[in-house]
C-alpha cells in the first residue's frame, strides 16, 4: 500500500459513500437533531465509546457502526481499489493503534490544548507512515 495521508483516507470514505448512495434506490433522510447528537456523542466518547446510529437513533459500539459502514460501502471501495487502504488503518485504530483515546487522554493529563494538538499531529504522522 502506498503512503497516503489521513485526508486521502477520508476522501476515499466519502467517495465510496457517495458512489453507494448513487447506486441505491433510496437514500435515508437523517434528522438534523439526530446528526447533532451523533456528532456530540462521538466527540465526547471517542473510538472506545458508543455511537448513535444515525439511521435508527440507537446507541451502538463505535466498532459495530464502523464495521457496518465499511460492509455497506465495500463494493465501492473494491471498485476504487481502496478497500485495504481504508480497512487496514481502521482495523489498527480499533485494535488500539495510532490515536486511540490519545487526544482526550492528553487533555485529561494536564488540561492543555497544546498537548491535544501534539497528540493529533503524532497520530497523523503515524497513520501516514
Sequence of strands across the biggest β-sheet: 1-2
Strand content: under 5%
Q: Catalogue the unreliable spans.
A: none
Derived structural class = mainly alpha
The whole-angstrom Rg is 16 Å
- The counted number of beta strands is 2
Largest sheet: 2 strands, antiparallel
Helices, by number, come to 6
Mean pLDDT: 81
Structure description:
With 129 residues, the protein is mainly alpha-helical. The protein has helices at residues 6-22, 32-45, 62-79, 83-94, 102-110, 113-128, and strands spanning 50-52, 59-61. Strands 1-2 form a two-stranded antiparallel sheet.
Fold blueprint:
Elements: H1 6-22, H2 32-45, E1 50-52, E2 59-61, H3 62-79, H4 83-94, H5 102-110, H6 113-128
Antiparallel strand pairs: 1-2
Keywords:
two-stranded antiparallel ribbon; 129 residues
Short description:
By secondary structure, the chain is mainly α. It has helices spanning 6-22, 32-45, 62-79, 83-94, 102-110, 113-128, and strands spanning 50-52, 59-61. A hairpin with a 6-residue loop joins strand 1 (50-52) and strand 2.
Amino acid at each position: 500500500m502506498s503512503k497516503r495521508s489521513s485526508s486521502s483516507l477520508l476522501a476515499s470514505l466519502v467517495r465510496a459513500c457517495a458512489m453507494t448512495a448513487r447506486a441505491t434506490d433510496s437514500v435515508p433522510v437523517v434528522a438534523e437533531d439526530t446528526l447533532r447528537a451523533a456528532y456530540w456523542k462521538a466527540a465526547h466518547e471517542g473510538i472506545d465509546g458508543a455511537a448513535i446510529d444515525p439511521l435508527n437513533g440507537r446507541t451502538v459500539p463505535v466498532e459495530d457502526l464502523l464495521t457496518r459502514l465499511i460492509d455497506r460501502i465495500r463494493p465501492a471501495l473494491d471498485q476504487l481499489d481502496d478497500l485495504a487502504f481504508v480497512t487496514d488503518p481502521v482495523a489498527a485504530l480499533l485494535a488500539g493503534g495510532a490515536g486511540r483515546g490519545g487526544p482526550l487522554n492528553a487533555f485529561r493529563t494536564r488540561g492543555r490544548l497544546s498537548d491535544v494538538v501534539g497528540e493529533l499531529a503524532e497520530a497523523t504522522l503515524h497513520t501516514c507512515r
